[in-house]
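Input record (one chain):
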Amino acid sequence: MKAIVSTLTMLIFGVANLLAQDYLSFHYKSILVDTHNDILEQCLTKGYSFDEDLKGKTHSDLVRFKQGGVDWQLFSVWCDGLQKNPYQYANRMIDTVYAVAKRNNTAIKIVYNTKEALQAIKHHQMAAMFGVEGGHMIEDDINKIDSFYNRGVRYITLTWNNSNNWATSAMDETSGKNLQHKGLTDFGKQIVKHMNDIGMMVDVSHVGEQTFWDVMHTTTKPLIASHSSVYAICPVFRNLKDDQIKAIAQNGGVIQVNFFSGFIDSNYNKRKEVFEKKHQAELDSLLKINPEKYFADDYLFAKYADEVALMRAPFNLLIEHIDYIAKLVGVNYVGIGSDFDGIESPPQQLNDVTTYPLITKALLDKGYSKKDVRKILGENLIRVLKANENN
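The corresponding structure, as predicted from the sequence alone:
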């Protein structure tokens, strides 16, 4: 009897091990495209290089991208609205990737279209492109869009939290701020049309609702939301409402779901309020030094990491956002825009870029076919980029 039990136990463990290997094998054979990672901002502000071992310091580095099965990364090029010479600053960020790619040409390659990206992936190189997060970085000069394009920028997020002279942001449209205009100006519509013409994707993450609908009535090509989640599950200003999700699907675009706990868990802000009250004195002191709150958040979250870990959103909520979009408009219109290294709190279990296989496993466990999981991991984004390219 003991021998039978032992044999059955070995069989059960053997089957479980095979199943585990199956999802991992499938994950690494699929093409994973992430449209939003902020490691470049970490590099510039903290003096890092992402071809170094940054474990424990960041969510990402070159080795860990490989470990997580990231085949194609669109690196976020970001600065806030207070940055002097934002166009120059953006190019310094782009330079960072060019330098890393030159030093590690067997591991990463800057690419300029889907054909080059797929070729790089075939040769086991991570394909690298860029997304400029904030239209203020073109400094109201439409020619700078072409310059960005020539360096491998394949989307521009029309606004960050700050509005610019030609488009208003979700933060400003919902804050009650007295705006000189709302939505796209005529120049803003000209920018959208120009992006369509040259083959650069228009990104509506961060834009206000008026800007969103103005874009929808202007664009002639599919667009993206590079890192946005679902308002119906987590009603914050940065998330997309059902009518917006439906409009993106009708446009043939794709919504790349953001991992930030505050955008996927409606209770996160309540937990954060308790945390901030506990550390109010420090928070007030930090805000006197720098009124931009994300600097204070960075400091406090690093100092009280154990408390912060307990605030993170449950992992299953991220899967719910993906599932919600897929059920609302179809699996062809959802993907991944993690916002790693740009967020203070990723969901539980998703500690860094090495944990992407957990998403693949969760989607397969939820009943998604391998064909549909491949779409979510990257094929949907590739389809949209191809539709924007001028072949």
